[in-house]
Specification:
By secondary structure, the protein is of the alpha+beta class. It is built from nine helices and nine strands. The protein folds into two domains: 3-70, Arc Repressor Mutant, subunit A (Orthogonal Bundle); 79-223, GAF domain (Beta-Lactamase, 2-Layer Sandwich). The strands form two sheets. Strands 6-5-4-9-8-7 form a six-stranded antiparallel beta sheet, with helices on both faces. Strands 1-3-2 form a three-stranded antiparallel beta sheet. Helix 1 (3-14) packs across helix 3 (37-49) and helix 6 packs across helix 7.
Length: 225
Amino acid sequence: MSSIKVLDKAFQILNSFSDGNKSISLKELTATTQLNKSTILRICKSLIKHNFLIKNEINGSYRLGPGSWKLGSIYNSNFKIGTEIRDILNQICEVTGQSAGYWVRAGKKKVCLYRVNSRSELNHYVVEGTTFELNSATGKVLLAYTNENSEIKKEIEKKGYIFTAGERLDNIASVAIPAFDNKNIFKATVSVSGWKQFFTNKTVPKYFKTLSSYSNQLKTLLSNE
């Protein structure tokens, strides 16, 4: 097996972990990755050696190790304004009752860099650092302002926002706006998202108004990044 293929399989294993799967058994890893047990055991042994995984010797399950946390912390340190942005997202969440997120583009994906999930039982839960395809409202804003969709950009400049429903997940809707620094350089997109039933002709403009009310605060923060 080539080194590249081994790396691909190692990333398959690491990407099996999520906020809902903090501890994973060998059986679950086999089902998730479609790799055979001997390959998983061999790669996990190496990941444990380098502190990317920790094995529970009692039940044989695996969880992420401090090496994974270290790399995540280094990546997050590139964005020095996380606490302030989360404060803004928290305020947006309080006003709208919906989950609020701050998204950036990473190649052909979008990354939820900061997130405050709604406290409602019916919420749209996303973990910070999760990547998705460049779809739904947030993906469309990122595409529009990275020179890949001029038509959507025209729509945003006309209305101020993008609204989508059921694009990534059938029951989820979102409203997103672009975020700029003081030099009007595009930096990210900020959104509210939740169950479609909460996004109506009356509430969508209100969500946009709430997002827009924090534009100047974001400009100041992003100019000091």
